[in-house]
Amino acid sequence: MPSGSPFGLDALPYGVFATEDSxxxxxxxxxxxxxxxxxxxxxxxxxxxxxxxTGSLDRMMAAGPDVWAEVRAWVRGVLTRPDxxxxxxxxxxxxxxxxxPFTVADYVDFYSSEHHxxxxxxxxxxxxxxxxxxxxxxxxxxxGRAGTVFPSGTDVVRPCGLRRxxxxxxxxxxxxxxLDIEAEVGFVVGTPSPLGTRVPSSxxxxxxxxxxxxxxxxxxxVQAYESAPLGPFLGKSFATSMSTWVLPLAALEGARVTPPxxxxxxxxxxxxxxxxxxxxxxxxxxxxxxxxxxxxxFAGMYWTPxxxxxxxxxxxxxxxxxxxxxxxxxxxxxxxxRGSLLELSWNGAEQVRLADGSLRTFLDDGDxxxxxxxxxxxxxxxxxxxxxxxxxxxxx
Length: 396
Description:
This protein is an alpha+beta fold and 396 residues long. The strands form seven sheets. Strands 6, 7, 8, 13, 14, 16, 17 and 22 form an eight-stranded mixed beta sheet that branches. The chain has a five-stranded antiparallel beta sheet with strand order 4-3-2-1-5, with no helix packed on it. The mean pLDDT is 96. β23 and β24 (359-360) form a beta hairpin. The termini are far apart. 44% of the residues are buried. Helices cover 15% and strands 28% of the residues. The protein has helices at 58-62, 65-80, 84-87, 114-124, 204-207, 220-226, 305-312, 341-344, and strands spanning 14-19, 22-30, 33-36, 90-92, 97-99, 107-110, 141-143, 149-151, 156-157, 160-163, 172-175, 179-180, 183-189, 208-215, 218-219, 240-242, 247-248, 256-257, 279-280, 283-288, 291-294, 324-326, 352-353, 359-360, 368-376, 382-393.
């Protein structure tokens, strides 16, 4: 087994991949290799559930936390016992073709970093209170478009839309001039909930199967024109990239931390449980054309995934297997910790220097952005969350 790898036995993220000799099936990542679970013989009762040869994680996600724990224990056992048959199934990552790991049922994106929200408020509403009055009372979010959530590596075509013109003139339609990224963490629902019921924050580990990295691509000029009085629509719905490896939520037990101190009272269903904190100590890295431009820390996120889950079901909305809810842009207090180019360039007023010497503000055609992350694991090891990457293509 790989020593010191963030993809050792404490991680074991799931993915769906094919090889030159096999059809897509469920597997796990171990170090720089992938192991097909579809090629192995699981023990009863897992063998009767047919979880791995379906070309999707959907069936395993829907099976619930007891099955998730059984699968994880079985995989760890398989990988810790010397077995030449298992060793023969290990395939270098360069030889696997990863695909979308699950069917996205619904997509919700939150706005949970106080540092990000404060920066956005100061950029667009100078001289006024940067945070909306209700921001610290509920996790603000918008309902995105599930059909445009793409796996990592999918190219992103520069979107077109209506953009504000000079005062007194009608808007113009054309390619966005301010294409941006948002470094985020996504949470994948496995166990559904009935319509008309609320999911308490204490049940997050019963419903959330795993964690992915998300890049919520944003056309800032299109978004700015359309977002009054409602929220994001076409400025966001053209593309959301997601990592192809899904880290089990259980792999982040060692990363759980107390969230930031609350300075306003919270509604009962959103109150933090001091005995079961759901802040997460994740370290993200944003690379722009291979230049690291930001290292956003997730531990400072004001709203936790448990609170987000409780909020999105607080009106009785049901959960479905494959629902994806994302954290919103992860930003810290320092300039080098901002998770969007809007903040890094202060809406174009400040330039970002890349390794090739170029000075940039927003994305050009041909640019590639990668978001990666790790978390603390047991015994001082780091646990990897994989990465999400995308390249910008010209508008059509």
